[in-house]
Amino acid sequence: MTHLSGKAALVTGGGRGIGAAIAKRLAREGADVAITYAKGKAQAEDVLAEIKALGRRGLVIAADSADADAVRKAVAEAVKAFGRLDILVNNAGVFPYGPFEEVSLEEFDRTMAIHARAAFVAAQAASQHMGKGGRIISIGSNLGERVPHPGVSLYAMSKSALIGFTRGLARDLGERGITVNLVQPGSTATDMNPAEGESADAQRALTALGHYGSADDIAATVVHLAGEGARQITGAAILVDGGANA
Ligand code: NDP
Predict the structure, then answer these.
(1) Domain boundaries defined on the chain
(2) Which atom of ligand 1 is nearest to the CA of 41?
(3) What's the CA gap between 62 and 219, in Å, rounded?
(4) What is the rounded distance in angstroms from the CA atom of residue 51 to the CA atom of residue 55?
(5) At the topology level of CATH, where does 8-240 sit?
(6) Which residues have CB under 6 Å of ligand 1?
(7) Percentage of residues in the chain with pLDDT exceeding 90?
(8) pTM for this structure?
């Protein structure tokens, strides 16, 4: 028996990067795992194959997080497939970057919808199915707390919304024994932020440890929060950023 045996999880954006690492690690710990994707069907199916190879049940769901109905349906599909839902991980994300003056309203709305509204909608739908021991974990960013360079005001705004949401929801759901937490990665090597990208050296220079994190570094913290060992942690925003915000 591993520490998440018998639990069922939903990870948004679980086909690549941090979400894929979270999905696989949850499965390794014993959970059945559903993942959503927007465009990357083939990659999501590769992750599904790995979940199944671990002997768990898995499910791939096409659901654009910018579409609130699709997010609600994804929660319903996961519940239908597994008969329960214990762990929700709001991970799907985008990285709008560029001059403040050039950010369109459309990009503003889409970014806020993917990062903030989808987390709200998914938590609202998922929490209806959760009992004591339920877990809601969102992936924010260390840029939601500190912004060391220009070009990311929209991204920072959308991620800082998750701090307030996490605190409020921890109060809303605490009575039911459901914990709500935020994991805030710093520079983490994925398609979104390659460790050899243009700004990678500047990002490394901001850290205390001098290197990027891996997707699995983030997954390790998420899986800890998902387990019984974290039953006393709620309303927390946890930096996993190599000391960049220290
Ligand atoms: P990637 O770009 O590597 O992966 C993004 C994931 O999100 C993919 O699975 C993608 O699915 C999914 N996704 C994107 N848009 C949507 C959408 N509209 N609906 C559903 N799924 C979507 O990024 P990371 O793995 O690096 O990022 C994961 C999370 O971590 C994000 O929230 C990001 O903001 C956050 N983060 C990342 C940092 C980093 O340095 N990498 C630092 C701080 C925070 P698909 O394959 O279908 O496109």
Answers:
(1) 8-240
(2) 47
(3) 22
(4) 7
(5) Rossmann fold (3.40.50)
(6) 12-13, 15-19, 36-40, 43, 64-66, 91-94, 114, 139, 141, 185, 187-188, 190-193
(7) 99
(8) 0.99
